[in-house]
Amino acid sequence: MSTGKGCARRIQAMLLSAGLSAALLAGCAVDPKPAPPTTVAVPADWRTHIGPVSPVEQAWWQSFNDPALNALVRQALDNNTDLRTAASRIAEYEARLRVAQAAHAPSFNASAGPVRSRARGSTGRIAETTLFQIGAQASYEVDISGRLDKLEAAAIADLQGQRYATDAAALSVASNVASGYLNLRGLDAQLAVAKATLASRTESLNRAKHLYDTGYNSRLEWLQSESEYRAAAGAVPQLERTIAQQENALSLLVGANPGPIARGQGLDGLTPPPLVSALPSELLRRRPDIAQAEQRIVSTDATYAAARDQLLPSVQLSTSLTLQGLTLGKLIDAPTVLWSLGGSVLAPVFQGDRLRAQADVTAALRDQTVIAYDQVVLTAFAEVENALSGIDLLREQITEAQARRDAAREALRIAQNRYRNGYASYLDQLDAQRSSYTAEQTLVQLQAALLTVHVDLYRALGGGWQSSGS
Fold this sequence. Notes:
By secondary structure, the protein is α+β, with helices and mostly antiparallel strands. It has ten helices and four strands; from the N terminus they run H-H-H-E-E-H-H-H-H-E-H-E-H-H.
């Protein structure tokens, strides 16, 4: 009984010593370094104003009214390998959090087994003994500085940041699928123009050959017609190759083997969705990558605080219990009980400035995350501005391209009539054909680009993203 009271008094003395040591050595800890302030000035509004706007819908890709596009996006969100990897990372960071939380609990270890020994006794005789023993040890760290709490807070922020990263990846995948599909429909439209042009050039070639054979045309006009026909014929397989590559890229995004992609609406049937907008100040809460950058700051700040706490003393409580016996029967019936109970204070005295350097490393990493946050926000502002100005200017370009297309069609009609009636040379008709083909292709490319830049705007505004919470 007296022995137990003596142990208790010794433990109390050690804990008191730990508290005094913490108070005395706290002044040796590195001074906290404040994080650099954010340098981003949030503008009051956007530079480009493009008329009435509507709220962002979460399933924003459905605004294009194309069932084939909707099915592709859904398939990508279910099967994309990047998203599956992101989900696995969430499981990883959940396990990391459990590791950090486990540091608050006592550790317990058990051991059992025989020990065979041969030794010379006090009489000089050599004796061999077999000792059976069962032991248990337990230890617990008293978190007097809150270091373990800070490490757990960092793990929580890392986990939440990974969830936001997964949301950002999903937004990126959906945007890439939508952009890829719209680009595919644009290529389909270009291919249709190329095939129509090839059919027209085939007719012109046959006519030029007939006129040459009957002596109404020179061989030069026939060869010029054949040259234009070959140019149009070469454009078709080039576009078909690009279409196949785009289909393979989309197949990869949706997690499928390379193959054909089902089509829905044609380019003319795909109307731009309603314009969406948000104030710059609202954008900071609408993008998952910005939320992820915020969580990085929280994590590195907590890690920095925990690194500074490494300079403070730590208190360890430990206990052990051992049962011994010369035989298994004696171990069970009448064991020899050995136990110990104690505490220890571990205080850093001299480690070559290693702990201070580690704290400086984490402080620098924390500062880098603040700067990275500024970069993410500035990039977000720039992406929205680019999308808004792109929509505005592409509309103007399409208006001019449509007028150019109409004029080129009329010029081609007149040139063909004049050539048939003998009032113009074949070169006039060739020039008109080239201009018409170029105008048609330019208009198709601009129409596809306008649809794609709407996707860019939805992506830049966060695509209707909502925080998944912790």
